[in-house]
Sequence to fold (326 residues):
Amino acid sequence: MNICSTSNQGCIERINEKLSQFLIILIPLSFFVGHSLRGWGLKHKWTAYPVLFSIMFASSYGLKIKNFLEVKNYKKSFLVSLFAQLFILPITSIIVTSLFYKSRFNFTYGHYALALAPSAISTIIWSRISNGNIPLATTLVGAHAIIVPYFTPIALKILTGKTLKFSAQKLFLDLFVTVFAPTVLAILTYNPKVEVKTKSVFGVWSKIGLLYMIILNTAIAFDVVPINLTLLKVFLVTGIQIMLSFFVGYLIGKILKLDEPSKITITYYMGMKNNGAGFVIIFAGFPHEAIFPLAAAMMWQQPLASIINALKGKNEKGSINSCNRR
Fold:
């Protein structure tokens, strides 16, 4: 089947549709590619910044200042979601590790770091893919990014008794470069005529960039912690923690009776974590074995997000068909 039989614009739109359709397959394949590129990831770690910047710009293009002013209508959901990120997810990590680990050992620290890591840009990317609430997603990720560099060391000191030594300013600067700066640039350069022409192009790039980041992070993670059978339990426990995080987001949307775009956004917000920032936290004062839950999280987060997106699509089609039958 030739998906590019007409205009270039139509071709790009169909490529974007096909990428959305096959993300649920492409994401697991990206992990295999990343695993096969062990040793390559650390050498190309520098590419993460320009790629993340461009993905964030593409995902934010089309937003206006007034969109962010609309977030005031979601004050309760904003505050509840932020509270859940800062307090409920760490409590969840304590419960999960207490249930599945008989004694507190190095991997437990990784689960705590995962729970306390900032929300990922993937929250915004998946919100865009799933037609979520982009201004709410950007505001939540941005607010979390500001708080985490100062909140996380205190929380981990309480949980583990360890004092972390890392630059909160550097972590904040990294998040500024990859979250705030591209969003501001996208708002300042917005042009409705340009948006019509670039919407599909940006959609394609957001998905390709997402796949690239999965490959890069997987290559880095397995270069630091080679996989073996003894880590299978930690992998499964991490999966349980990630699924619970998504479920917390789903419950928030249900309890607060939010609209569908906001529900899906908060679900992604609770489940998608900035694993790179998590690595920084681990390297600041924990054994290297603690990295594995963060590496394992990548193998759970993106596939689960693609499944959530696919389920949302099926529900929407079901609703449309039901209305048509009426």
